[in-house]
Amino acid sequence: MRAKIYFAILLAILALALGACGLIPDTETVMLITPSATPTWNPLTPTVEPTLTPAPTQTATLTPTPFPTFTRLPPTPGPSPTPGPTPTGAPMEVAFPTVDDAPLRAALYGAGNRIVILAHQRNGERTTWNGFARVLQKNGYTALSFDFRGYGASGGDADFNKMDTDILAAVTFARQQLHADRIAIIGASMGGTFATAALGDPLVKGVALLSSPPKVENFTVSTAALQLPDPLKYFIGCDADALYMAGLTDMFKQAVAKQDKLHPARAELVSLKCAAHGLEIFSGPQKERLTELLLGFVQAAFQ
Fold first, then answer.
1. CB of 212 within 8 A of CB of 247?
2. Contact by Cβ (8 Å): 91, 132
3. In which element (H, E) is residue 5 found?
4. Strand pairing of 103-109 and 142-146?
5. Cβ neighbourhood burial of 230 (10 Å; 0-12, 13-18, 19+)
6. Which of these, 149, 160, 262, 303, could form a disulfide with 156 (CB 3.0-4.6 Å)?
7. 285 in a domain, yes or no?
8. Residue 45, domain member (yes or no)
């Protein structure tokens, strides 16, 4: 009996010794498993492939070349080429207002920037210039023949105390819309009288008065404007058209009154052997001579 008790005590001491050395696992101990550096492949778990960052490739970037953009510019101011003959085409109908909004209508012959403005006489309208306008076009110039207010296709009333502004409106239209670099004005009778309102404008290189009086209603030709060295001034009339020839002669004398060697006046007086007035000269024997004179005037004005 005593031996059994000793054996039981010995077994208990042995169990305690083994437990102290960790040889018998404790059921309440949580085992922490640290994964090894090399993962164990599991066929049920998809393998995560390593993400590869490709080395940057030197791919050339092609930038498409844009198409050029063209801007239509007005003609550059400067000397124009010597005019040459151009084919005759149908005139273009154009319109422009005056400063007091009178609607003026005009016919445009040609498309250059050397503009010749044609102003009709009191008993006419712009169509009376058609023949000479085509002559100008054939010789390389652009003609702009217009109706004064209250005449032809233009609106408003025929107010002779405002028609100088009609001339100025035509000059403004030629400058702004036709991009003129040089302008000459030819006026018949009252058309020439009112044309003198544009003397002094830097673009106006010449004014020709055909059978024009020095005064129409309340508008009187300015002596100071006539005495400007430029532009060129032509005074043309028939010797038998006595009253108007006297007026032209008087204006010519005013134009050259103060000229000297340093400041010569650019003016010329031509008396034709005829009795017609203004544009009526084109219907008589002096038609060719008048055409020659007016073409010479335009050429000299634009030099």
1. yes
2. no
3. helix 2-20
4. antiparallel
5. middle
6. 149
7. yes
8. no
Does residue 172 lie within any of the structural domains?
yes
* Tokens encoding 199: 């003397």
208 lies in which domain range?
Answer: 98-301
Task: Find the length of the chain.
Answer: 303
Q: Give me the DSSP letters along 52-86.
A: P-PPPP-PPPPPPPPPPPP---PPPSSPPPPP---
Rama region for 190: left / alpha / beta (φ>0; ψ in -120 to 50; rest): alpha
Three-class SS state of 213:
coil
Q: Look at residues 102, 269, 255, 280 and name the one whose alpha carbon lies nearest to residue 189.
A: 280
Rounded to the nearest 10°, the torsion over CA 210, 213, 216, 221 is 90
- Helix pair angle (130-138, 287-301), 10° resolution: 50
* Dihedral angle computed from the Cα positions of residues 100, 103, 109 and 112, in that order, rounded to the nearest 10 degrees: 40
Joined together, the tokens standing for residue 103 give 């609607």
The residues pairing with 145 across neighbouring beta strands, listed in sequence order, are 107, 118
Within 8 A by CB and 6+ apart from 54, the residues are none
**Beta strands 92-97 and 103-109: pairing type?**
antiparallel
Single-letter amino acid, residue 97:
P
pLDDT tens for the chain, 303 residues long, are 555 555 556 555 554 444 444 444 443 333 333 333 333 333 333 333 333 344 444 433 333 333 222 222 233 333 333 344 445 578 999 999 999 999 999 999 999 999 999 999 999 999 999 999 999 999 999 999 999 999 999 999 999 999 999 999 999 999 999 999 999 999 999 999 999 999 999 999 999 999 999 999 999 999 999 999 899 999 999 999 999 999 999 999 999 998 888 888 899 999 999 999 999 999 999 999 999 999 999 999 999
Q: Are 105 and 152 in contact (CB under 8 A)?
A: yes
